[in-house]
Amino acid sequence: MNVGFALRELRLTGPGVPDAVVEFADGLNVIAGPSDTGKTYVAQCIDFVLGAGTPPKAIPEAERYATASVRLWARSEGREYVLARGLTDDAVQLTTPDAESERLRAKHDPKRRDTVSYFLLSQCGLAGRKIRTAAHGATRDLSFRDLALLTLVDEESVIRARSPIFSGQNTSKTPESRVFRLLLTGADDASVIAQEKPEIARSRYNGRAEVLSELVDQTLGELRELGVDNDLSAAERRLVAQAAENEAASSALASAQKAAAPIEGQRREAWRALRKVESRLNVRRELQTRFELLRQQYGSDLERLAAIAEAGVRLGQLTEERCPVCGSAAEHHQREHALEQPPPADVTRACEAETVKTTALLRDLEVTLDANATVIEQSATERDARGLELDRVERDLRTSLQPRIEQAVRVFRESEMRRQAAARVVDLLTRLRELQELLNVARAQRTRPRADGGLMGASAGEAESFVKEVERLLRQWRFPGVDRVTWSEASQDVVISGRARGSHGKGVRAITRAAFNLALLRLCADEDRPCSGLVLIDSPLVVYREPEAGEEAFPRAVKDAFYSSVAADFRDEQVVILENDEPPPGLASTANIIMFTGTAAGRSGFIPTT
User: CA-based, 20 to 30 A from 514: which of 158, 294, 402, 549?
Assistant: First the structure.
C-alpha cells in the first residue's frame, strides 16, 4: 500500500518507572496472553493517542505512568512520526522526522488543521472529505474518529449484534453508513445538495416496480414456452442429471478420438511421405527441363562454330583484287590505320578447338539427362506407391473409425443441447425468484417510501465486491457451513448463508466481525482506495472457541486457518490481533508475535513488573 499508516511502537513512560514498550511490524501482529496482562490497555492507549476522547481505563499497574506515545510510519511520505499524549491531556504532541515538534488538538475541528484528526486523515488520503449527516442533504467534514470505528475494534464491539459500521447511536447512523460507503466506493458526499422529494421517490419506485413486473412477465412467458413448471429444485436436479450424461458423452467421444489417433498418425505420415516424394519429383522434372534447354544451347553453339570455321576456310581461298571503290591494286593501299587481323586459318583452328570442348560438355550433359530421367521414373513410381498407401489409410479411417467418432460427436452434441436447455431453465427460474424478490421490495418501497428520502448506506451493487471478499476470507478460515455471503441494505450488514450475521451467537459474531473489517481493508488495498491501512481487533477468537449455550462447538482448525490466512493476505497492510490464547506453532515465521505470560516466566505483561 502507498496510503495510510502503520504502527511501529507504543511506548508508555512515567517518572521513576521503566518504559512499557510494544513494537509492531507490517503484516500480522499478534499480542497474546491471559486476562489482566494489559492487552486491552494497549488498544486503549493507541486509540487515545490517535484522538479518542476517553482515556485508557485506569489500572493499578499504570498509575505511575504519565504519557503514551505512538511511533507510526506514514506510507505515502515514507517516514516516521511520533504522536505523544499525556494520559490526562487534551492535546497531542507531534514530532516530525526532523525533530520538530508541533502541538495538535486531540478533538477534531473542521476549521483547523492543527488537529490529530487532520494529520491522520492526510496520511489516509481522506482530508477534507465530506459525509452526509441527515436525509435532507446536510454534510460535514470527515473526522478520523469516523474511521476509528472500522479501524480499531474493542472487545465489546467485536461481539455486538448490530452492523459493524454502527456505533449504536441513532443520531449517528446516517454519517456512519456514509463513512462505510465512502471507504467502499471512494466517493464522498461533497456533491450532495438536497433531499429527493417524496413524490419523485414514489415515481422512481413505481417505475422500478413496473420494469420489474414486466421482466417477471417476460420470464414467465419464456418458461411457458419451454413447457416447464416453476419448481427450481426439480430443475436443478435435472441439470445435475444432464451434466452427468454430458460428461459421459464427452468421455465416450474422447475415447473414440483416442482410438483414432494411431491411424490418424499413420495418415499424417503417409501424407508427409507423399508430399516429400512429389516435391522431389517436381524438382527433378524442373531440372530435366533446364537440361534440355542447355542441350539445345550446346547444339546451337556447335552449329555456329561450324559456320564460322567454314567461313574462315572460304576467306582463306580468296585472292586479293583491286579496290572496288577506287580501283587501286592491293599493294597501293595504305594499311597503317587498319587493325591487326588474325588470318582465317587461325579462326578456323580456334573454332575447331571450341567445338571439341562443347562436344565433350554435350556428351556429359547427355549422361546427366539419362540419369535424371531414371530418377524421375523412380520417383514417379514411388509417388504412386505413396498415394496408394495414403488411400488405404484414409479408407481404413473412413470405414472403421469415422462412423464411431461421428456417432460419439452426435451423442455429445445432443447431450450438450439437453444440458444447455436444463441450465437455461435453472437460470430462468433463478432469475424469476430474484426478480420477484426485487419486485416485492420495490412495491413495499412504493407504498411506504422511506422518511429519510432513500437508502443512506451502501447498496447491494456497491457492496458486491465487498461481500465476495468476506466470503473468500470465511472460506479460507474454514468457517463451517459457508454457502453464500450477500448484503442486506436494510441492516447494512452481511448475510451469511441466508442468515443475518447479527442473529448468530457471540462467537460467530466476533469472527465474522473480523471478516467484515479485514475484507474492507483488503478491498481498499486491492482497489487503491484511501483508508488507514490498519485494523486492530481485540479478542475475535476467544468467544468463538467457547460458544454460547445452544450453539454447536466450532472446529479448532478455524483458529489456525484464521491466523495463517491473515498472515498471508495482509503482508503489505497491518493487522493487530489481541487474543487470550497462544497462536498456532510456526506462525512466528510470518507474523510478529508478542506473548504476555502473566507469570514471572518470560514477559509478564505490557507494564513491566518491578
Answer: 549
Query: In 488-601, which residue ranges form alpha helices assigned H by DSSP?
Result: 506-526, 542-545, 557-569
Where do you find CATH 1.10.287 in the chain?
A: 232-316+340-436
At residue 451, the pLDDT reads 44
Instruction: Check: CB of residue 10 under 8 Å from CB of residue 42.
Output: yes
Residue identified by cell 429527493 is 196
Which whole-number Å values give the CA distances from 541 to 34, 114, 467, in the listed order?
Answer: 13, 38, 21
In three state form, how does the secondary structure of 375-415 look? HHHHHHHHHHHHHHHHHHHHHHHHHHHHHHHHHHHHHHHHH
Take residue 511 and report the three cell numbers written for it.
469472527
Q: Sheet containing 493-496: give its strands across.
A: 485-488, 493-496, 499-500
* 543 vs 507: CA distance, rounded Å: 5
The alpha carbon of residue 387 and the mean position of all alpha carbons in its chain are separated, in whole angstroms, by 52
pLDDT tens-place string over residues 30-76: 999 999 999 999 999 999 999 999 999 999 999 999 999 999 999 99
User: Rounded CA gap, 385 and 540, in Å?
Assistant: 81
Give the model's pLDDT for residue 444.
79
Parallel, antiparallel, or unpaired: how do β-strands 91-95 and 101-105 relate?
antiparallel
Q: How far is CA 514 from CA 164, 359, 406, 473, 530, in A?
A: 9, 102, 57, 10, 20
Question: 99 CB contacts (<8 Å, ≥6 apart)?
Answer: none
* DSSP states of 438-484: HHHHHHHHHHS--TTSS--S--TTTTHHHHHHHHHHHHHTT-TT---
Query: Alpha carbon of 588 to those of 31, 286, 433, 599: distances in Å?
Result: 12, 79, 49, 21
Residue 333: DSSP 8-state: S
Terminal CA-CA length for the chain: 41
pLDDT value of position 452 = 44
H/E element holding 70? Answer: strand 67-74
Cα 146–147–153 angle (5° rounding)?
110
Residues 14 and 67 sit within 8 Å (Cβ to Cβ): yes
Residue 309: alpha-carbon gap to chain centroid? 89
- Decide if 566 contacts 577 (C-beta within 8 A): yes
Query: Cell 452526509 maps to which residue?
Result: 132
Amino acid, res. 49: V
Report the topology of domain 5-195+455-595.
Answer: Rossmann fold (3.40.50)
Residues of the chain falling short of pLDDT 50: 194, 449-453, 549
Decide: 575 and 535 in contact? Cβ < 8 Å.
yes
Q: Of 30, 16, 22, which is closest to residue 589 (Cα–Cα)?
A: 30
Collect all residues with Cβ–Cβ distance below 8 Å to 261 and sequence separation of at least 6.
none
Q: Are 157 and 510 in contact (CB under 8 A)?
A: no
Residues of the chain with CATH 3.40.50.300: 5-195+455-595
